[in-house]
Structures are given as C-alpha cells and as structure tokens.
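Section 3.1: Structural characterization of target chains.
Under the original work plan, the team committed to producing a structural model for every single-chain target entering the pipeline before any wet-lab resources were allocated. The record below documents one such target. The sequence was received from the expression subgroup and is listed exactly as submitted; it comprises 459 residues.
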Amino acid sequence: MSFTESLGDIIARDRSGMLAAADHWERVRLGDIASVVNGFPFPSNNFTPDRGVPLLRIRDVRSDRTEAFFDGDVEEAYLVRAGELVVGMDGDFHAALWRGPRAALNQRVCKIVPDETLYSVKLLAYILPGYLNAINQATSSITVKHLSSRTVGDIPLPIPPRKEQDRLVAAIEEHLSRLDAAVAGLKRVLLQLSRYRAAVLKAAVEGGLAPTGTGRSEEDGLPTGWRWETVVTLAERVDYGTSAKTAEAGDIPVLRMGNIREGTLVLESLRYLPANHREFPDLLLQAGDVLFNRTNSAELVGKSAVYRGHPYPCSFASYLIRVRLRPDCLPEFFAAVLNSVYGRRWIGEVVSQQVGQANVSGGKLKNFRIPLPPQNVQRLIIAEMERCFSLAVAVEGQVASGLMRAQRLRRSVLRRAFEGKLAPHDPDDEPASVLVERIQTGRAAAPIKPRRPRRVGAR
C-alpha cells in the first residue's frame, strides 16, 4: 500500500530528532529544490549477468555495484552516476549516494537531483533517510510497501542558509568519519574472530588442543593413538529430515538449515508440525544427534551442529541430515571435524551442483573419513574448544555493544546537526528565508520530466 498520512502530522509528532529543524532554518518542498526522476521498466529479457550497462535496482541502492546488467540502449535521463542520490521506492525506502559506476535507473528506483545552488546533495543525503523512515513506518501494507515520487516531492525539507549547509556537511563528515573508522575496526575484529574459530577447529582436528602422546604415526600421519574411521562405521543411523509442509504454529518444532550458525543451533524462526505427524517418533531428535546441512550455497553446505535435547521433542527438515553416532565418537568432536578446514576441504571435493545449489548426499557423508582420537582425548579437545569459543563469544558481545553504541552516536551527531548545534550559525549568511523567497519566485531549476525512451532494446 502507499502512504496516505499527512507529512505535517508526522513531523509534528516526531521524537527522534531526525526530522528537526533549527530555529533560523526554513522548510521547503523537496520538489521545489530538486528533480525526482523515476526509473524505467527495462525489459527483463535484456538483463545479463555481465554484459551491457550496469542496472541499478532496489537491492543495489546502498551498494557500490549492481547484480545485473542491461544489454540495450539507455537514454541519458535514466543514467545514474557516482555521487547522485538514489531512493528505493519499495520495501524499506532506502536512500544513498550512489557509489558505483554509471548505471541504468531501473523501475521502482528514483534519483533525486537537487539544484546545488540551493541545496547540497550531500546534506540532502543525510537529511532524507529520516523522512523516508518516518514515511515507511506510517505506511501500512499487507505485502510490500510502495513509495510514490509525488510523496517524495512533497517532503517538507528543512533548509539552512546555503553557506551553512556546507559547514554542516563538513562538521557531519568530520564526526562520522571518526565513527566510521571505529566501526570498521570493530568489523575487523569480527573477521579476526571468524579466523580464530577456524584456527581452533583446525587445531582440534590435528591434535593441537590436547596432549598427543609421543608423536605421529609414520603410516597415516595421525597423532599417536588416533585412527581413521568412516561415518558408516561410527554412526548408528544417517537419515534425512522431513519434507512435510510446516506451519508457524504447532506442537513439534522443526529445525532447518537456517538454525545452524557458527557450529551451534539458534532457535529462531522455528516452524512446526503436529504431534501426530506420521513420521514421528522416527524423525524426532535425540540429545547428541549431529545435524548436517546437506544443501545450500557452497559456503553453507556441510555446516553442522549438535542437538542437545532442547527444545524437546524436536524434529528436523529434509535439507538436513541427522547423524546418530556410536559411543566411541563424541558428537561435538564429530561436528568440529565437519566444520573445520579439513571438513570444508572434503566437502569441496565431493559437492555436486543442482540447479545453482551445492549438495552433499547422505551416501557421500557415510564415506567421510575422520581422524578419531581416543575418547578421553576427545573430551579434552572438546573442553578446550568450549573454552576458546566462550572467549570468542565474550568478545563478540563487546563488539556488538560497540556497534550499537556507534549507531546511537551516529544518530546523536545527526540529531545535533538538524537542531543547528553541530556547525556555527553565521549571521552574515544569506538568511534561509531569503533563499526560500528566491525558490518561490521561480529561480530554482525546473524539474526534469524525462521522456520515455524511443528505443530500448538489445544492442
């Protein structure tokens, strides 16, 4: 559905500060200082993965590249260049300065081209998201929310004196550049944590997390006391989950591939089956069952986690394989082998592609060979893995808190900017009221009214 509420009412009840305006500023319709250019419905039969003009679609608005190209003619009016402001007209109404190459503006995306003698495009890029977010929250929808260019043009923007706009942008960028550097540092920590986990798993499989005796066997290269075993000899059963249609509510939760993250089960977005489902109790999980993701993108196939009895009863979906092990192989060690670089290498060797998805069958999984230490060594390895991973989780919590604080600080910087408290007000500047008078007397550039391309087809 589209937006029907009064923009004035939304601004009046705003408590976020994102729609504020300093006392010495004025307000002006966005359409009076900028052109709103709607994208064109380029024919999809000319879309290509790598040939032609990059095609800017809604999913690309906040990126620096496009996922598709258009192999055909594109009129100048529908081209977007780096630094131009683009807005997604469906979904969450994201806005951003385009950071990619010259691209064709697809339907349901618009570009906003301000007259920069009146309004800084950079300032507009900071101010506009708050209004689009408020409009999004006030737009009811059963399916996808829609934004019209008319609504965009009617947004009552705060307009500071033109010279103050540049000072304001400089002040915002100074504060946010430091904040962005801190956020980039936190994200690097997350990347290092991912590498740390991989290193822990590698050490676990190679015997680096527990005493390995006097050395390694010359015959098989394993630490003393370890042996090679296949899943078929270690498992009591290897079977696929249910393909039955699940519901948002019911009796028995059904774990799916999205519930496996970083080697653990995340009990979110669960689906359910009734307790009298015909495949129960055969497909009910037992504590210690290992769940193996058999299909998805190549990087997710093979990701595994151990079910430890919660929630109970519980089942699993057909894209997962359940491995129930014999007592001499502990589930956490087995899952660690699958998630390690050793397991990833094996998956890369046996994976098959089916309609764009990678797949590892239960039969291939049965033939997987793992380096198996004695059970007491497995326990030592598992305990050391848990200690290392608990440290990683603690650091992740600190990083998450830091990222949330950075988000709050970003909003605080913008709120102070829009309240007129971030950059100095110079009484010698041309007042905003005079700027608005010039706009109202027609000195603003006329809006672009693009013609439909006469010819849009393959080159």
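The longest helix spans residues 162-206.
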